[in-house]
Amino acid sequence: MTLSSPTQPCRWCGRAFPKTSGPGRPRLFCAPACRQRDYISRLRAQEAGLAESELVITRRELEELRDKLFVLECAIEDARRDLGDGGEAREALEWVIDAAMPLLGVPLGEGAT
Ligand SMILES: [Zn+2]
How many Å lie between the centroid of ligand 1 and the Cα of residue 40? Predict the structure, then answer.
């Protein structure tokens, strides 16, 4: 990734993708699959009478997300304690990154079909 290629978050999955320039409508999604999921999600929301900002996700998806957030929370606490004890910053950062990685591109609302 170079400085000349700014990124933006995908409106569906949140993954960063290169910003498009030039004529035409700007892209909102990183992939056609994400555009499709967003579209289906809107349809379902309409059917269920949900507001645009509401999303139906399964209990399993929510629990998996909570588990991953819990792991990240623990890693942050560990890292903070290690740094407070004068531990290696690099090690602490790697620990936090490892815990944060599973949260990248977590699909939400895909199991709620
Ligand atoms: Zn996406």
Answer: 14
The tokens describing 92, both together, are 């602490």
Distance 31 CA to ligand 1 centre (A): 6
Per-residue pLDDT of 62-85, as tens digits, reads 999 999 999 999 999 999 999 999
Cα 102 from Cα 50, distance rounded (Å): 29
**DSSP string of the chain, one letter each residue:** --TTS-EEE-TTT--EEEPP-SSSPPP--SSHHHHHHHHHHHHHHHHHT--TT-----HHHHHHHHHHHHHHHHHHHHHHHHHHTT--HHHHHHHHHHHHGGGTT---SSS--
Whether the CB-CB separation of 65 and 106 falls below 8 Å is answered with: yes
Residues with CB under 5 A from ligand 1 (ion): 10, 12-13, 30, 34
Mean pLDDT of 4-28: 85
